[in-house]
Amino acid sequence: MLQQGKFEKAMVMLEKLLPDAPIEIKDRCRIYINTCRRQMEKANLMFQTPEEHYDYAISQLNTGYYEEAREQFNVILTTHPNADYAYYGLAVLESITGHAPDCLSNLARAIELNPKNRLQARVDNDFQNMLDDPRFTELLYPEVP
């Protein structure tokens, strides 16, 4: 049921199995039950504005659901390709997950769309992983001719 995307049915079956299952299967059942719940919540997501959608993506990022957050940022960009805040969110995500080239690319695009993002990034602790990267420094503190 889970593989077929029938999350409600899968969850009911897993919950029935849970009480009498051996300990090693109980742990797996709990994981799959949580997966079902997340997938069912995801199907019910409706956002009034792209900013509201962004808030949801950030909540996923803050709770460690990095792939879900990435997916949500990309959905925002599909419908709002100039949403600088979504590029900024992706840059934060890539910094946290250690993907420097993607971080730099997304942050550069966020700054291009809204120069205020440069100032925000200078004080954002989420870019700690990037502080030693000279490309990051150049992006945040460009030389003025």
Protein described:
- This protein has eight helices and no strands.
- Helices cover 70% and strands 0% of the residues.
CATH topology of the largest domain: Serine Threonine Protein Phosphatase 5, Tetratricopeptide repeat
Over all CA atoms, what is the radius of gyration?
Answer: 20 Å
CATH superfamily of the largest domain: Tetratricopeptide repeat domain
Report the CATH C-level class of the largest domain. Mainly Alpha
Number of spatially distinct domains: 2
Low-pLDDT ranges: none
Number of helices: 8
N-to-C terminal Cα separation, in Å?
Answer: 62 Å
**Helix vs. strand class:** mainly alpha
Percent range of helical residues: 55-70%
Main beta-sheet strand count, sense and barrel state: none
State the shape: elongated
| Mean pLDDT across every amino acid position | 91
Order of helices and strands: HHHHHHHH
Key structural traits:
145 residues; mainly alpha; Serine Threonine Protein Phosphatase 5, Tetratricopeptide repeat; 2 domains; 8 helices; 0% strand; elongated
Question: In summary, what is this structure?
Answer:
By secondary structure, the chain is mostly helical.
Describe how the helices and strands are arranged.
Elements: H1 7-17, H2 23-43, H3 50-62, H4 66-79, H5 84-96, H6 100-113, H7 116-123, H8 134-140
Helix pairs in contact: 1-2, 3-4, 3-5, 4-5, 5-6
